Structures are given as C-alpha cells and as structure tokens.
Amino acid sequence: MAVEKKVAAYICQGCGLGERLDTDALVDVVKKEGKIQQVKPHPFLCSSEGVTMIQNDIDNDGVSHIMIGACSRRAKTDAFNFPSVAMSRANLREGVIWIRPDTEEARETTQEMAEDYLRMGCAEIKAMRQPEGNPNTGTSKTLLVVGGGITGMTAALEAAKTGYPVVLVEKSGQLGGWAAKLHMRVPSHEPYKAPVDNGVAGMVSAIEADPNIKVYLNATLAKTSGAPGRFQAEIATESGSTATEDVGAIVQATGFELYDANKLPELGYGASPNVVDQGGLEQLAREAAERGGPILRPSDGQPVKSVVFVQCAGQRDASGTHLAYCSGHCCNTSIKQAMYFKDANADIDTTVLYTDLRTPGNGEDFYRSAQEKGVIFTKGKVASVQPAGNTCKVNFHDLILDDQNASIENADLVVLATGQVPNSGVNIDFKAVEGEEAAAEVEKKTISILNLDYRQGKDVPQLKYGFTDSHFICFPYETRRTGIYTAGPVRRPMDIAQAKEDATGATLKAIQALENAAIGSAAHPRSGDLSYPSVRLEGCTQCKRCTVECPFGAIDEDEKRYPLFNESRCRRCGTCMGACPVRVISFENYSVDTVGSQIKAVSIPDEFSEKPRILVLACENDAYPAMDMAAMNRTETSSFVRVVPVRCLGSVNTIWITDALNSGYDGVMLMGCKHGDEYQCHFVKGSELANYRMSKIDDTLKGFNLETDRVQTYEVAITDIDRVPKLINDFEKRMFEIGMSPFKGF
Amino acid sequence: MSNLSSQAAAQYNNNFLKEVEAMVEEGNWVKMCMQCGVCSGSCPTNFQAGWDHPPQEIFMMIRAGKREEVLNSQSMWMCTSCYNCIVRCPRKLPITHIMHGLANYAHRLGLAPKNQPTRHFAKLFWNNCIQTGRVNELKLSLGLYFKDGFKQGIINGLAMKDVALGLLKAKRLNPFELFKAHGCKDQKGIHAMLKKAHEIEERRKAIKTA
Q: Where in the numbering of this chain does the 4Fe-4S ferredoxin-type domain appear (chain A) (predicted)?
C-alpha cells in the first residue's frame, strides 16, 4: 500500500455531462471545497484513453486515492476497476443529469446537485482506506457434510467430483437415510410412468470407493468451532472417542422425520395395525418384495385387496394443532405407493383421497400414468377412519358431490400421508417466541446437531416451522452462519429430485465460501469484498449490542467480555457498525466517518432560499439500483435530494440522522428492504433492526423540536422503479408543507 | 338394486366404473378425469333446469359407484354436442362422446328418464329415418307435436299453423307425404347395412365384456 496518501479527482464530461454541467465550476468546487488539487476533467473518462490516464497517475504519480465524478458506482465497473487504490464515485449521471429536466430554469439546481455530489465524493475518499483483506484466514479446503441421506450423499459426491475432500458424518449405522428405506422412488427421468429403483446402493458404493470422502458412521458432532476456512469439527464416534477434523465449510443435510402419526388418533393410527404412515407402507412393500409376494394386511397376513391413501394427514392444518404447511412430496409418494399395488395386481382397488393434488416436477405425467393404471382419485376431506376387525371404514366429505357422509368400507389398508418435520436441531431463538405456542414448542427436540461453539447458540437459526433460515428465492442455501449451508428437507419440505438439486447448489456455495475465506474475502452477498470490521477496543463499553445484533453470529466475546470478531464469519453488512452506540466499529472503506463526512459536506442553502435538502440513505442492494433504473427511464426526481448508498439499512448509525438534522437537512429518508417473515433483506435482519432503531428516532426529533415526518423509513424493492421517484417527490412536497428546518446556518 | 344397504356398501368401490369402462362408448376415459371442472364451466346448457349434474359430477358419481343416479340422470340427454368441453379439457377426454355413450347405455338398459324430450326425439328420428332411408319431416314434426297426448298435439299443431301454411304456399310441404313417403333408391340395401352394423356392434360388446 502506498505510504503517502495522495488524492486525485477525475471528472467525466461524456454522456452529456459536459453539456449539462459547468465543468470549470465543478473543478473549482473540488479544488476549493473538496481540497483536492489534482483534478482532471476528461471528455470520455471510461474510454481506454481515460482509464489509461488514471492508471498512469496511479502507477507513476503515486496516487493512492481517487475520486471519480461520472456515472453511478454500479455502472462501468469494468472500466473503473483499480484494485490497488481506494476509490469513491460521485454519481453525476444517474444521480443528477438523468433525473433532471434539460431546461434553462433547472440548470442552477442541477449544477448545485452535481457540486454537492462532488463535495460528498471528496469527503468520502478522504475518510477511506483501501481494504487489505481479512488477515485472519484459514485455508482448509475440506467440506464437512452432516447427514448421510440422499442430500448428504449427493453433496459429498459432488464436492469430491469437483476435487474437494469431504468428511461425511452420519448418526446412524448406514448411509442412505430415508431414501434407503424406500422400496422404490418416484421416477426422475422420462417417461415418468412407473416407480424406479431408489438408487441408494449405487451412491453408497460410489462414496465407499472414493478416496476423497471420509465417512464417519454412528457419529455425531460434539462441537463445531472456528470460522469459514478454519472450522474445527469434533466428531463423537461410535467407540466413544472423539476425532477432530479441520474443515473449510459445512453442508448440513440433516433431513426430516415423518410427522408423528400417533397425534392423529381420529385417523385410526394406533387403533389398527392396518393404518400405517407412508414410511410404514414402504416397509410393507419391501417385506413383500423380499418375500416375492403381494403386500399383506398386517392384522392377519392376508393379501391386500383394497387400499385407501389419506392425503394431507396432519398437514395444511389451519387449526394450529398439526403441521400448517404442505410437504410437497406426499402426493407423488402416494401415487407411487398406489402403483406398488396396481402394478402387481390391477384388480386391487386403490383410492387416493385428496383435497388438492399437488405433483411438482414432472409429477403430472406420473399422476396421469397412475390414472391410466386405474388408481382412483377422489376429492374429499377425510373425517375419520374407523377400524373394524380386519378392515377399516374411511369416512369423508366428498367435495365434488358435496356429500358429507361419504365413506369407503372394507379398506384392507389405510395409508396416511403425514409430511415432513425438519431435523434442524435446537431452536436458538426459542425464548423469543415463548408465550404463544409454549405447549407445542416444548416438544421441540433439544438435541443440537452442529453444537456450534458460537455465542449466539448451538445451531443455525430457524425461520418458520423449524426449517432453517434462508431466503427461498434470493439465497436459498445461505444460512445465518457463514460457511454453513443447509440443503434438503431441513431447509424446506421437498422430494428426492429437489433434494439432489439442493445438495448440488449448497455444495457449490460451500466451496465458494471456503475459497473466499482463504483469500480473506467476504461471502455472499458482498462476495469479493476485502474489507472487514475493525474495532477500537479502547472506546468499547461492552454493551454487547454488536454481538447480539449481528445477524450471522460473527461476533463472540473474549475473556474480558469485549467483542471478538471472527472476520471470516462476517458478511460485511455493517449491522454492528449501525448498532454501536459509541461508534468504535468501522470498515476500511465504509465507516461512520465515510458516510458522516459526506452528509456534512453537502452545502445547505439558508432558510429563505426555499431550497430544502433531503438526505436519502438507500440500501445498495435494492433501493439504489431501483433509483439507477428510474434514472435510466429518465424519471424526473427532486433536485433537493442527496443520496448516500449504504451497505444495508442495518449499518445506519443513528448519529448520521442526528448529524444531518443538526446541520440543517430538512428531512431524511431511509430506504431498505422488506423485513419480517417474508423478508427481502440480503443480510436477513438488517432492515428489521434499522426499522426498530428508527422507531426510537421520534424522541430525538421531539428533543430537537422537529416534526416526526422529517425522518421516514421505507420498504423498497428493486422493482420499485416507478415508486421510488414518487416517494421522493412526495417527501419533497411534504417538506415544503412543513417548512424549512430551523437548524440551517448554525 | 332392491337391496339398499348392499348398494350403499358398494359405493366408492370400482364396480360401476369398471362397468362403464366395459359397456359405454369411450367409457375407458372416465378414470382420466382430474376434476378440474373446466367442462362444467364451459357447458352452454349449464343454466338449464334439466341439467342436474355437470360432466365433472357425472364422472365423480361414476367413480363413487352411484349407478342408479347416473343412469337415471337427465344430464347426458341435455348435451347439445357443441364440443366446447372436448376442446377445453386439459386431459383431452372426449366428454361429448362419453355423454352420448352414457345416454345410449342408459337407454338400452331402460333406465333413461321416460318422456325425456331429447330421448323421445332421438327415438322418433331414428325410427323415422331407417324405414325409407330418408327423414319424413311431416311425420317427424307430427310425432313431436303429439308427444304429450292428442289434445296437446292439436294445440301444438294450431300454434304452428301459420308456418305450415307458409310452407305449403312455398311448396316446401307436401301433405300427401303423410300417406306415401318418398324413400331413397335402395331401401333394402340400407336395411341390410344397418343390420350388419348392429351385428358388428354386438360382437364388439361381447368381446369387451368377455
């Protein structure tokens, strides 16, 4: 890194900037107010000539910090790519000329806007340093896979094929999990007509033959500590001894249990051996196959002549007693099981009682094939199953004929489709939900799976119904523990085909994580970011807010109860920075100062000029791109806003708001992602925490004797391209209604 | 049939479905219905009072073993053969043909509703047309007028007298046709052909049920 700090500024005149703005005045602002003496305007800065000019200054002139006044920081990133220096970018194109009308009367405010963005850029670059990369790296390239079911085996095989060694831990005595217990599986290839071999034996032998995969059977994780690149897994083995493995990343594929059918006495489970769950039927089918005969009725060993499948048994239950969700695989599984009977003997009556038949993937073909084979599908809601002797009577409400008292008598076998319950270990947020469903929660398993040595708890956080937290569209495999990825039914209910796909995805993410960890760079979503949080411990008051609020459990406590950062676990969202009341946490290129000095750099016109100043702190993942896109559409937006992108709304420290109001801004808008159960925040909890913090800002405003409307928080999605300019323009109107801030000019 | 309890016990087993598959034209398609209801929503007759069960329900009733209810139903007779359901069925069931097949089967078993206008007209038309190989329109209309007795027949006839006079004037109606209908050239051939067709149909049915 450069020993001496030398700052240079570059102002682009391309894309209409030269015509719309007075470049000489801009250069003056940078020199006099930005205090950067080396300023170079260029007619086309992102051209190879412009880029060469900048690179020349860096190589030959010792420039260590550059400020580029051109387009949005999200544009031309290939051209303006100078990894050896710190860089700030003043957004003159998307931020100014593209959102302002090209008229004579707008010229003055447009120029003011551009000058402010340059002042901000100059202030930011002076507070920045070029990130050096997290020094606290680990270089283990081994992948730990927890769980040896179809998901875990797929993950292990895929990683090994890619050249990464794997440690596979399975708690039972054999590989295969649920899939190994299946007589056959739903087909995954054309023509989707009949059940196929479960495929487990082939995978097991491939794993056994692979020298890159080390398998621990009858083993569990006694302790997992460390961070991506340098996890230490203590594996409790069958013999009672503990093996320690150094691993770089973890895939948790701990699967599911069937929902306990004993909770469904009304459906006859437990009252007759002829009522089984789907797992029970697989066992009957395997026994029959071993015997080489038909499937037998458990009560008396007679061949089954009629069988009824009850879908959604204890699932999609609105009453709150049973599972609230659909497990996704059970319709296809029942279709497959009905085929066990029909393929053996077409005269066996097989009826599937369903309320909505859901056959994901190519299940529709499989469903049709079952109909062709004579499986009968009856749309009805089962009320009860009454065992009588060796048969059962199934009472149901026929939903097509609206017959409340429909029934099937003399069913030899009743199969309940009970659904999946995830094996996700300890619910570390248990206390947070206590009180509502205490009784149901008490039954939650308390055996930890990962036994993480993290301050925040032993397992990965859960989202809903015990499934692990992840974002189902944007980042499905990411958990809230960096370097640990969940795959398969522990993440959401799914079938074998989906679990295999899931395992492959999670494995690739895990490999990315350990490779990033090795070079000291962040994982998703700031992948490639070399900055990392540093803390000035002298100033720390041990308030613990950073350790509690970090969405990713990156911060532990040292023996003196100071925060102990595990940089490799950090996602660089800055939530800790936003949380810190004494502002001792910072990143090299993103700190309370880099943003704070931008806020203070804006020139605030006096109260009587009728030119309000509105600060927008916008999430760089969604709100800022939405603004860029609105600018591409040339949507006219207020000339009084000054936008500062933030890594996450969670990184917003309330001092910024206080500073802004103190220095005479009329209003502050915070734009972050949706929070709550259906959150869209890239850092899971950032926008939620920001919203919580901002709910307290009203007191501050009242303390200043300011209107509470002056600070507003908005949920903005990346698709809100038309909405964001409207929000800003409405806010501007409101500011004019309230009147100018009385804090100007102090 | 007389024993109600045994019939109730037989419900929701597959016996009637198997009977329909064997005996009804295109009946083997019934099991492929996925109960989406598009046929019922597409049927132009669904505002008619006589439409007691839409096709979706008929298919469900067959699977539920409701033999009497299905075969006594008016529904199949209400079909206007517009083919909307066939066009729209996502499972490509030939619904119109199944409806006609069911109607035909109910008719042959003597279970179809008595005096059902469509059934009456169909019988009249068929018997009229196979005699000479040509439809005698005068006789066919009169047969329809007198469906519900002599008095109602006179009333119906008088209601249509203006049309009849108009047709007479335009020489589109020959009253002597009532006594001697003109037929097609080879009436014997037609009769032989129909007989042969009947034989073939019976043979096929026998093979199916065997």
A: 531-560, 561-590
Cβ–Cβ contact A406 with B under 8 A: yes
- By Cβ distance, the residue of A306, A368, A401 closest to B57 is A401
**Domain map (residue ranges) of chain B:** 4-112, 117-208
Residue that is written with structure tokens 């600018």 in the block? A631
Q: Which domains does chain A have, with CATH numbers?
A: 1-130 (3.40.50), 143-255+423-518 (3.50.50.60), 258-421 (3.50.50.60), 604-746 (3.40.50)
Chain B residue closest to A372 (CA)?
Answer: B32
Q: For residue range A581-612, what is the model confidence (pLDDT) as tens digits?
A: 999 999 999 999 999 999 999 999 998 888 99
Here the ipTM equals 0.85
How far is Cα of residue A743 from the mean position of the Cα atoms in its chain? 41
Residues A737, A738, A741, A742, CA torsion sign: positive
Return the CATH architecture of domain B4-112: Orthogonal Bundle (1.10)
CA distance B36 to chain A (A): 10
**Confidence grade of residue A1 (pLDDT, cut at 50, 70, 90):** very low
Closest-CA residue of A relative to B12 is A408
Q: Which of residues 342-401 of A touch B (CB under 8 A)?
A: 349, 351, 357, 367-368, 371-372, 374, 376-379, 398, 400-401
Give the residue from A348, A356, A392, A401 with the most B CB atoms within 10 Å of its CB, the best one to mutate: A401
Contact A380, A399 (CB under 8 A): yes
Tens of pLDDT, residue by residue over A5-37, are 999 999 999 999 999 999 999 999 999 999 999
Report the share of chain A in percent with pLDDT over 90: 89
User: What does the alpha-carbon distance between residue A422 and residue A479 come to, in Å, rounded to a whole number?
Assistant: 15
> Which pLDDT value is given to residue B2?
39
Q: Which of residues 40-99 of B touch A (CB under 8 A)?
A: 56-57, 60-61, 63-64, 66, 91
Q: Are A412 and A348 in contact (CB under 8 A)?
A: no
Give which of A705, A688, A604, A608 is closest to A652, Cα–Cα. Answer: A688
Q: What share of chain A in percent tops pLDDT 70?
A: 97
In the numeric block, which tokens belong to residue A314? Answer: 């204890």
Query: Among partner residues B32, B57, B66, which is closest to A371 by beta-carbon distance?
Result: B32
* Residue pLDDT, tens place only, A383-440: 999 999 999 999 999 999 999 999 999 999 999 999 999 999 998 887 644 555 554 5
A411 by DSSP, 3-state: which?
A: strand
B83: region left, alpha or beta (phi > 0 left; psi from -120 to 50 alpha): left
Residue A216 near residue A357 (C-beta atoms within 8 A):
no
Across the interface, whether the CB atoms of B12 and A378 are under 8 A apart is answered: yes
A333 has pLDDT over 50: yes
